[in-house]
Design goal:
The protein has eleven helices and 13 strands. By secondary structure, the chain is of the alpha/beta class. The strands form three sheets. Strands 1, 2, 3, 4, 5, 6, 11, 12 and 13 form a nine-stranded mixed sheet that branches. Strands 7-8 form a two-stranded antiparallel ribbon. The protein is globular.
Length: about 350
């Protein structure tokens, strides 16, 4: 058994596998076993894997379980010290695994890490999904070193230091198997979007560290499953983000933050309709708010358990400023310009 299991969750990603899986095998198989977990694809993914990549271990799921449960069910079948969850649209580089393995080996308090993630279309720029490590603001809006809302920075080495972060991108996430299962894995009810942020936040609440290791680098296509602007993506992002806040916010902040989010979410919906003429996303926000209200009671036990087991009273990587104010009013559009 190798120490690292690289697990690529695939759904109808035949083209991506053919294009990017060769780099994973070339630069990883000395240090890791490569798995593809197939989420009941209806394209020729399985034929491509069997014909062109026989060295890859294949896990076939009976139906499309989504990102969260697809990984949960797949990882139950794999023995390794470290899981590395990797999107099918990632191109990796020489020596990319070594910094992560060495850091995790020598820092037992670290539960998970990620490489620096750059855009495959503009290799000098960060990639939207994870850049150089993720954070949250007071109201739960995610941002990264290298990406704040729609502003993506050019990589000039400004975020090449090892940094504690709140969340590591699910596009390329290395995590200790024991930590993954200690918190029960990803929340399958999310299906997709925000599930890795929720997972990492729960680990931070237990006092475990999450870090970005920019000595490791990978290139990401992004938006492969649900493209930006898709109403279903908007729905999942809003519903799941609210659910994550409900589960993880400290008791003293819960009511205040959720009241503000009620106002901010509806403000965002009307901005989508009036300024962007996007009826689909406008309706998606309303549906997400209703869906959250309906299923919130299903997470009451989760919240009680998370709060009862809280170790970290304050989490520095969850910033107390309001990102919307900093970005739109103060004009601070890069990570380095935000308040400490």
């Amino acid at each position: 058994m190798k120490k690292v299991a690289i697990v690529i969750l695939n759904w109808n990603g035949s083209r991506m596998l053919k294009q990017y899986l060769p780099s994973v095998l070339l630069y990883s198989r000395e240090e890791a076993t490569v798995y593809v977990a197939d989420n009941a694809s209806t394209d020729d993914s399985l034929e491509v894997l069997r014909e062109h990549f026989p060295e890859v271990k294949l896990i076939e799921l009976s139906k499309n379980l989504g990102f969260a449960e697809g990984y949960n069910q797949s990882l139950k079948q794999i023995e390794a010290e470290y899981y590395l969850l990797l999107n099918s649209d990632i191109e990796v580089t020489h020596h990319w695994l070594t910094p992560m393995i060495e850091y995790m080996d020598s820092h037992q308090e670290v539960a998970a890490c990620q490489p620096k993630l750059l855009s495959i279309f503009d290799r000098d720029s960060f990639e939207y999904a994870g850049a150089s490590g993720g954070f949250l603001d007071r109201f739960g809006y995610p941002f990264c070193r290298g990406r704040v809302f729609e502003t993506v920075e050019t990589d000039n080495g400004q975020y090449d230091d090892v940094s504690d972060i709140l969340w590591a991108t699910g596009a390329a996430l290395m995590i200790r198997a024991k930590d993954y299962w200690k918190v029960g894995g990803m929340d399958a009810r999310f299906f997709a979007h925000n599930e890795e942020i929720d997972l990492c936040w729960r680990l931070r609440i237990l006092g475990r560290r999450i870090v970005c290791l920019p000595d490791s680098c990978a290139y990401h296509v992004g938006g492969g499953t649900l493209p930006k602007g898709n109403p279903m993506k908007t729905f999942l992002n809003f519903r799941n983000n609210l659910t994550m806040l409900y589960k993880c916010l400290p008791d003293e902040e819960l009511k205040t933050v959720m009241r503000w989010r009620w106002a901010l979410d509806y403000l965002a919906a009307w901005e989508m309709l009036i300024l962007k003429k996007n009826v689909g996303d406008f309706m998606a926000v309303y549906r997400a708010r209703r869906a959250f209200k309906r299923w919130r009671k299903d997470f009451e036990t989760d919240r009680r358990v998370i709060q009862a087991n809280r170790v970290a009273k304050e989490i520095p990587e969850r910033k107390q400023f309001v990102l919307l104010w900093q970005y739109y009013v103060k004009g601070r559009k890069t990570f380095s310009s935000l308040p400490e």
